Amino acid sequence: MEDKLVHAIAKNGDIRIIGATTTNLVNKGVSIHKCAATAAAALGRMLTGGLLMGSMLKSENDKVTIQILADGIARDIVVTAYPDGHVKGYIANPLADLPLNSKGKLDVAGIVGKNGNLLVIKDMGLKEPYVGQVPIYTGEIGDDLAYYFTVSEQTPSAVGLGVLVDTDLSIKASGGFIIQMMPGADELLADLVTYRLQELNSITELINKGMDIKEILELIFKDMDLKILNESMPLYKCNCSREKVIKALISIGKEELQKIYNDNKEEELQCHFCNKKYKFTHDEIGSILEDIK
Ligand SMILES: [Zn+2]
Question: Where in the chain are disulfide-linked cysteines found (predicted)?
């Protein structure tokens, strides 16, 4: 089944909903990074959360980066997403893995760690990007994003993210949603949504049974006038290029680059997000140096 990203409203716009199935794109991300099971679940939840947040951006040139920097063995997890449904991600320690937690689930909070921050960086073409930061809440990622929305954006939100990892470390099912109550919405309505979410089986179980995101949302918002506004197919896609790598080389500074040049060796740089390799010969490094002079 293809991945699907859906924007919807319910109760005449009092409830805003963004949901997605992401089994294929998460599978691509975790296979690029050769993740162990727990790392795969963590990166998969971040990719899905990032995708949903990226699709909330208004202009096509905007982008959002979400990053977890904490004291767990996963270390740094970064995801960048774009409004067109493209997303890419990176986990510093793809081998991070722990025994199942007391609920029998992959211990994402365990590898994320307790002390650290969730950063949300929105680049909207202005001089300075918007940076929001909250301390790690539970480390389960969905809870942390919900906490961010509530504290940093003053928008009470429910965030559900799930990744089911198969025994061969491929992704069996993955998906998630962000549900936000708009200002002025009935508080009883928020209670009802909360109750429905508690009743719901885990989202990955439903996806694994073959339900698509629209069917899952219909299950939650039955009798609440659910309206699907648009749907699209999200993708794991990296937009790196030789030009961008050259810019990165220039940004390390003339002195450092001169050292690389003096080493008289070929320089190979690898993209963090897709593992693509970019080679630069001694002469090419020389001409980049010339350009900065
Ligand atoms: Zn790349």
Answer: 238-240, 271-274
User: Quick one: 252 and 158 in the same domain?
Assistant: no
193, β-bridge pairs: none
Bridge partners, 227 (sequence order): 9
Q: State the CB neighbour count (10 A cutoff) for residue 215.
A: 12
- Hey, CA dihedral for 38, 44, 45, 46, is it positive or negative? positive
Res 166 pLDDT > 90: yes
Q: Which domain holds residue 100?
A: 4-236
The token pair that represents 240 in the structure block: 């790196």
C-alpha angle 50-198-236 in degrees, rounded to nearest 5: 20
CA of 131 to the centre of ligand 1 (A): 23
Q: Using one digit for the tens of pLDDT, what is the confidence trace for 70-110? A: 999 999 999 999 999 999 999 999 999 999 999 999 999 99
Distance in Å, CA 52 to ligand 1 centroid: 21
Asked whether the predicted pLDDT for residue 131 surpasses 70, the reply is yes
Per-residue buried b or exposed e for 241-263, using 16+ beta carbons within 10 Å of the residue's own CB: eeeebbeebeeeeeeebeebbee
Cα(273) to centroid(ligand 1), Å: 5
Average pLDDT, the chain: 94
The distance between the two most distant Cα atoms of the chain, rounded to a whole number of Å, is 70
CATH number at residue 284: 3.90.1280.10
Q: How many domains are contained in the chain? A: 2
